[in-house]
Design brief:
This protein is mainly β and 125 residues long. It has a single domain (10-120), classed as Hotdog Thioesterase (Thiol Ester Dehydrase, Chain A, Roll). It has one helix at residues 44-57, and strands at 10-14, 18-24, 67-76, 85-95, 98-107, 110-120. The longest helix is centred in the middle third of the chain and has 14 residues, at 44-57.
Length: 125
């Protein structure tokens, strides 16, 4: 799987309706040198990717294999900087044969992004 990020989310808690992860945003992330040189900010697409990777790491059912179908919405609320720890809070909903995941990513300074993803689990249910 290709990804712009280097760190992997650590699952803090997981359950059928909610989960949480955390991931360090190291200053060595390969995206920093080109994203606002002299004032590095973690790109929004990388925050969305960490919500996506968190959802894959903490699915609503153990062993469930999810495939990202759509990014339904994204709202960026504050920047993420080198050295921050990103926390991702996930809530899951199964509707019309698809899994919807609402993810809120944040740092010690507060909410950084709100993301809504839609997944297919291949079951057709």
């Amino acid at each position: 799987m290709a990804t712009p990020v280097q760190s992997v989310p650590e699952v803090v808690s997981a359950g059928p309706a909610a989960a949480s992860t955390r991931v360090p945003v190291g200053p060595g992330e390969r995206v920093f040198p080109g994203h606002y040189p002299g004032f590095p900010i973690f790109p929004g697409v990388c925050v969305v990717e960490h919500v996506h990777l968190s959802a894959l790491a903490a699915p609503p059912e153990p062993g469930l294999r999810l495939r990202l179908e759509a990014i339904e919405s994204t709202r960026f609320l504050s920047p993420v900087f080198p050295g921050d720890e990103l926390t991702v809070e996930l809530t899951w909903e199964h509707k019309n044969g698809r899994w919807r995941c609402k993810g809120v990513a944040g740092t010690a300074r507060g909410r950084a992004a709100a993301v809504r993803l839609r997944f297919d689990d291949g079951s057709g249910r």
